[in-house]
Amino acid sequence: MNPLKDIAHRAMIEHDLLPEFSPAALRQLQSIERSAAGGDAKAPAQQIRDLRSLLWSSIDNDDSRDLDQLTVAEGLPNGATKILIAIADVDELVASGSAIDDHAAANTTSVYTAAQIFPMLPEPLSTDLTSLNPGEARRAVVVEMIVESSGNIAASDIYQAQVYNHAKLAYGAVAAWLDGNAPAPPPLAAVAGLEAQLKTQDQAAQALRRVRREHGALSLESVEARPVFKEETLTDLRTDEGNRAKDLIEDFMVAANGVVARFMDAHDRPSLRRTLRSPERWVRIVALAREHGESLPAEPDAVALNRFLSAQRASDPKRFADLSLSVIKLLGSGEYSAEQPKGKTAGHFGLAVRHYTHSTAPNRRFPDLITQRLVKAVLRGQPSPYSPEQLQVLASRCNQQERNAAKVERQVRKAASALLLANRIGERFTGIVTGASAKGTWVRIKSPVAEGKVVRGSEGLDVGDTVAVRLIHVDAGRGFIDFERA
């Protein structure tokens, strides 16, 4: 085992996450594979629609193998658009309470580290049998929406269907094509009618986004670091930047998750919700805006904050990622909660939505698999598979394991950064302060993307400050990167 993989494996165990599947889970996997090979899958029921002829396609990262969603659109009179989002029917093969389900319930998420991926489900499932792979007919739960030209959702429905992925597409290539900077990627150009199809989707997604922005959805920019390998050797950590194709999928997923949440409300069923409360550090966000020559209200106001962010993106695009990172840190993390029928939800401050759940990634998030089972019970006229008390326990478990997974990913990312920085002791860097509390002050540098602790000279620094630091120590095994203020 190489050093980084060994660090990742140990970090999983230290943070109460299972790095390996149990023998019982592997035996169950073999049974599922035998059934699939022998054609023993469940025959489509009467209520399963056959939508394989539609021009479904997937858009994801270049290296993604667990495909959770497909999308397709149909233009309607008066400028409206019918949007269909197919979500992989993981529940069809992963029974509740089974050994594989127990593993998923234990970890609650796939863990993506710079060393390796620890999937929530065994890869023969998540990257094959329950993945919406190109050239394969698959069972799915479909969210249907009628999006008016204004961007409002006029009607929606949810049902089960058989779907077929006609093209596996990647964010970067699709974005370059949509922006007019490159020809259509070969998988897109090879399917007649798919180019027009994606342009229709893009128009509907932009309309959805306009409405969310008007209501205060924040125009933040992700600053996640992705590892770069040359064969088996880690050579860099680079920022994974947003683009138009990512926006398209994000807009559809946010809308679909809202439809699912309202669907559960309409049927008086308990559900899991994803919430982000008003930011506790709003005062610091106000101070950041003041440093940029803008003013924000004294009380949290998503519309005003988004107006400030949009202005900064336009006026200073090169430094917007740093500002985005600061605001993301100050907003805090989202969390899962159990919602009772007709209950009052906290909503999601960053997305400017009141009703929101996670439902579109059941191959890699356990809350989405739970929600899928809740939805299918409604569709089949069955009682809820989880009691309100069980949902509350599951929400707490998912919150805890999401935090643990983030710690593992951060620890391994720091270990990878420490390995890349080992020969650069004494060098000076410019960074952005990402954390400041009694536990210490942290700063993020850009090349390579790395976050470390300011162990000397941190007095007076706060989140969002730009600071010059000098690298003084690294410890890859412990994931430590230490800076001093330069």
Q: What is the topological layout?
A:
Blueprint: H1 3-14, H2 23-37, E1 49-50, E2 56-60, E3 69-75, E4 81-88, H3 99-107, E5 111-112, E6 117-118, H4 123-129, E7 137-147, E8 153-170, H5 171-178, H6 186-189, H7 194-214, E9 224-230, E10 233-240, H8 244-266, E11 271-275, H9 282-291, H10 302-315, H11 317-331, E12 335-339, H12 366-379, H13 388-421, E13 428-437, E14 440-446, E15 449-456, E16 466-475, E17 480-485
Task: Give an overview in words.
With 486 residues, the protein is α+β, with helices and mostly antiparallel strands. It folds into three domains: 3-276 and 335-415, no CATH class; 282-331, no CATH class; 425-485, Nucleic acid-binding proteins (OB fold (Dihydrolipoamide Acetyltransferase, E2P), Beta Barrel), CATH 2.40.50.140. Helix content is 38%, strand content 25%. The chain contains 13 helices and 17 strands. Strands 1, 2, 3, 4, 7 and 8 form a six-stranded mixed sheet that branches. Strands 13-14-15-17-16 form a five-stranded mixed barrel. β5 (111-112) and β6 (117-118) form a beta hairpin. α10 packs antiparallel against α11 (317-331).
